[in-house]
Amino acid sequence: MARIQPLNQDNAPAASQPLLEAVNKKMGMVPNLLGTLAQAPAALSTYLSVSEVLGGGLLEAPERERVALAVGQANSCDYCLAAHTMIGKGAGLTVDETLLAREGRSADPKQAALALFARQITENRGNVTDDQLSTFKSAGWSDAHVLEVITHVAFNTLTNYTNHIAQTAVDFPAAPELQQA
Fold first, then answer.
1. CATH code of domain 61-166
2. pTM summary value
């Protein structure tokens, strides 16, 4: 059971109601994560604003999903793994690609470097080595990409931690289990 209950347009604070209405109109639903964030209008507004800004950044939709999956796996967030597996499929990733991204891998070397770097940032709390940074940049990524990936990691960590603390009920199909090596 959720420790912080998701709200809807009827019981959310007044400042959250139009935001939830816009989400519902766009998605046809209000995911439990966003209903939970609606408890604090500033949190919901921040989430939606950052999401919109990052959607217009350097990373394409499949790349953003690879980062979200890598971070969600590193932070053991079942909610985000389920959501971003579904969103990743909509962005053109196959199920296998979503699984590889969670492990910091990809069949494409540039995309593998992206997923791995996102995991490294997450697992090392931003303290990546010179070699890790160099490997990422050697795969064809720029300093601007480094900074954008950091922003995506921080954004996804926000949702991962929210879900951990709130114990948000997963309202997306469960992500497939990773195969044990």
1. 1.20.1290.10
2. 0.96
